């Protein structure tokens, strides 16, 4: 199982992730991405059917702002 969260401090609002994985990512008023599933807390398991899209979005983010882990982020960005 996978969890995801966006580091909004490094997101540059490029807009790639929401285009790639519209079921997972949307944008706030400033265009910064967040995870729809759990309001960017990283606590919701990404549904299996969205895992491929998640991986594509992860690979496509130019600033590596999309984080993926096998445990809940509990609202905290894990700095790799
Ligand atoms: Fe931001 Fe990366 Fe998405 S820069 S808008 S998290 S693709």
List the secondary-structure elements in sequence, H or E: EHEEHE
Structural class by sheet pairing and helices:
alpha+beta
- Please give the count of helices: 2
Query: What small molecules accompany the polymer chains?
Result: FE3-S4 cluster
Mean pLDDT: 96
Largest sheet: number of strands, sense, barrel closure = 2 strands, antiparallel
Q: How large a portion of the residues is in β-strands, by DSSP E?
A: 15-25%
Sum up the overall morphology in one term. globular
- Write down how many β-strands occur, each being a DSSP E stretch of 2 or more residues: 4
Distance between the termini: 19 Å
**Order of the strands making up the biggest sheet:** 1-4
Please give the radius of gyration in angstroms: 11 Å
List keywords for this structure.
single chain; 4 strands; alpha+beta; 19% helix; 80 residues; globular; binds FE3-S4 cluster; 18% strand; two-stranded antiparallel ribbon; 2 helices
Q: What's the helix and strand layout?
A:
Blueprint: E1 3-6, H1 16-20, E2 25-27, E3 33-35, H2 51-60, E4 66-69
Antiparallel strand pairs: 1-4, 2-3
Describe this structure as you would to a colleague.
This protein has 80 residues and is an alpha+beta fold. Helix content is 19%, strand content 18%. It contains two helices and four strands; from the N terminus they run E-H-E-E-H-E. A hairpin with a 5-residue loop joins strand 2 (25-27) and strand 3. The longest helix is centred in the C-terminal third of the chain and has 10 residues, at 51-60. The protein is globular. The mean pLDDT is 96. The site of FE3-S4 cluster has 14 residues, from helix 1. FE3-S4 cluster (F3S) binds at residues 6, 11-17, 33, 61-63, 65-66. InterPro entries: 3Fe4S_ferredoxin (IPR001080), 4Fe4S_Fe-S-bd (IPR017896), ET_Ferredoxin (IPR052395). Keywords: 4Fe-4S, Electron transport, Iron, Iron-sulfur, Metal-binding, Transport.
